[in-house]
Design goal:
binds magnesium ion, Spore Coat Polysaccharide Biosynthesis Protein SpsA, Chain A, binds sulfopyruvate, 540 residues, 8-stranded parallel barrel, 18 helices, alpha/beta, elongated, 9-stranded mixed β-sheet
């Protein structure tokens, strides 16, 4: 039900209802969660939370902006304490328009003079508005409203200003005649006598609202039995805030630590809940592209790299320096440069020499009798959480960062990078992983995706479309299938020989689509001493 109609319902239900003060979006939300059917947008507490007096020091548009947050945060109606309407009938009309635009359901105006003063500050000395002028303001408000269910409440300040029952009744009658949907009769006495006397005379001519701040000890059934429509708890959240804030700041000043207050304040997660953090998380799933920054990397780096001779006597190949720092540091820097920080390195040979910071290490202590897939299995078993994207790569392949970005941008479960310029490969006359794809780089139909048919170190030249660059990217979805494929291979046979290309072929055998992204160059497989020299000139 629309908020305006909800407010009409509580106003006219014939039962006593309660609305509670709020002064910003958060307190409004708390009022709704407590079960109240409506909110009192208190002039006193909204001004106080701004740190100013209840004397129209906050401009009406500042109040309006605050109300907008309150309205956006809630689904129950708000009755604004609109003071005197912030001016004459003309200002009142504009106020009503602006309130309706912000889905505020009702406004209450009091028959005093702008700028007003809070009724509990020398109320007896406060002048009242001219009855005809104030009635005209009510008429203007009712004429201005676009939705029939918007309500205008007239607040009679006769008792506050020291007048008697007859003045209160005269004013209530005039405002009722002018079109007010209800009368808020205010009193500053410690007992409800004035209110009850008015209600007795007034009968059921229109709904009556009260603010029992000063006659707080009155049993609620007294209001119920006398036929009051709405009791307003007008300022109690703000007062609760003040008490709590004063207590907490005092303790903090004295104790100089957080220990003694932690149990007495809401948790940070409660703040997030009230702010609606959970909804945003859900919406992100619907509206944001798959999170690319949730990428983790597994770098296989267990082998010694015997081909590098003396360089790898006491350290593995990944720690051999190139341009002043280990090969692995270059690789880590390239990943870090595109904000990928979750890096796991599988160490084996001379593991203590692999000692870079900000890296997770997994140790394959059986590196001599096991191969890459065993290292990968250890790394996957050690993973604490499943990332949206896992890149599996080698500790001896240098590369430009765009290569990783290309893989992150592909939406497929399995992605590999292929160098189409394979005929120029440094690996031509040694071990290389050649690939056969659904299209060659030059023949591919743009718009159609290239997929892998086979990766092997012994393909016929005629069918080779490129060289696998040593990267396999797996989506969160694809990871279970990687684990299954890996188990199949490891169960079947030679743990020492089982390498990443075996896994890729196994995935194809299992019916998976391996997306191929072509590029040319911009990577370097460091296998020999000449490669180390070449790496010196490679700038990732
Ligand atoms: C308010 O809450 O701002 C009110 C009620 O107008 S009272 O403070 O009692 O005047
Ligand atoms: Mg007020």
């Amino acid at each position: 039900m629309k908020k305006n109609a909800q407010f009409c319902n509580i106003l006219k239900s014939g039962e006593l209802d309660f609305i509670c003060e709020a002064h910003n979006g958060l307190s409004a939300k708390i009022v709704e969660e407590a079960g109240f059917k409506g909110i009192w947008g208190s002039g006193l507490t909204i001004s106080a939370q701004f740190g100013v007096r209840d004397n129209n020091e906050a401009s009406w548009t500042q109040v309006l902006d605050n109300l907008e947050f309150m309205s956006d945060a809630t689904s129950i109606p708000i009755l604004l304490d609109g003071d005197t309407g912030y001016g004459n009938f003309n200002n009142m009309r504009r106020l009503v328009n602006k309130l309706e635009q912000r889905d505020i359901s009702a406004v209450c105006i009091e028959d005093k003079i702008f700028p007003k003063t809070n009724s509990f500050i020398g109320g007896h000395t406060q002048p009242l508005a001219n009855i005809d002028e104030f009635s005209g303001k009510i008429k203007a408000a009712k004429d201005a409203q676009k939705d029939d269910d918007f309500s205008v409440i007239a607040r009679v300040e006769a008792f506050i200003a020291g007048w008697g029952l007859s003045e209160a009744l005269k004013r209530a009658e005039a405002y009722h005649e002018a079109g007010a949907d209800g009368i808020l009769m205010h009193s500053a006495l410690a007992v409800p006598d004035e209110i009850l006397a008015f209600k007795k005379e007034w009968g059921d001519r229109s709904p009556v609202l009260i603010v029992p701040t000063k006659y707080y000890s009155t049993p609620t059934d007294v209001y119920r039995d006398s036929g009051i429509s709405i009791a307003i708890w007008a300022n109690h959240l703000l007062r609760a805030n003040i008490t709590t804030m004063q207590k907490i700041t005092k303790t903090l000043m004295e104790d100089e630590n957080l220990l003694s207050i932690e149990d007495n304040v809401a948790s940070v997660s409660e703040v997030f809940r009230l702010q609606g953090a959970a909804e945003l998380k859900e919406a992100e799933k619907r509206y944001l592209p798959v999170v690319k920054d949730d990428t983790s990397v597994i770098i296989l780096a267990a082998s010694q790299g015997k081909d590098l001779g003396d360089l790898t006597l006491d350290k593995p190949k990944v720690m051999v320096p190139v341009r002043g720092k280990p090969i692995l540091s270059h690789i880590v820097d390239t990943y870090n440069a595109i904000n990928i920080k979750d890096l796991t390195v599988v160490r084996g040979f001379a593991k203590d020499a692999v000692n870079l910071s900000n890296i997770n290490f997994v140790d394959n202590d059986e590196y001599e009798t096991t191969g890459e897939l065993w290292s990968l299995k250890l790394a996957l078993d050690a993973q604490q959480k499943q990332s949206e994207c896992t890149i599996i790569s080698y500790g001896d392949v240098l590369f430009h960062k765009y290569i990783v970005q290309m893989m992150q941008d592909a939406d497929d479960d399995f992605v590999i990078m292929v160098d189409a310029d394979w005929s120029q490969s440094r690996n031509r006359n040694r071990h290389a992983d050649w690939v056969k794809c659904s299209y060659s780089n030059s023949r591919q139909n743009y718009g159609e995706q290239v997929t892998l048919k086979e990766v092997s170190n012994s393909l016929n030249q005629e069918v080779i479309n490129g060289e696998w660059m040593g990267f396999l990217t797996v989506s969160k979805n694809g990871m279970e299938r990687v684990k299954t494929g890996m188990d199949t291979i490891l169960e079947e046979g030679n743990i020492k020989e089982a390498k990443l290309p075996h896994l890729i072929n196994q995935l194809i055998k299992d019916g998976e689509k391996i997306r191929v992204l072509y590029t040319t160059g911009h990577w370097l497989d460091v296998d020999s001493l000449e490669d180390i020299v070449e790496a010196g000139a490679f700038n990732g």
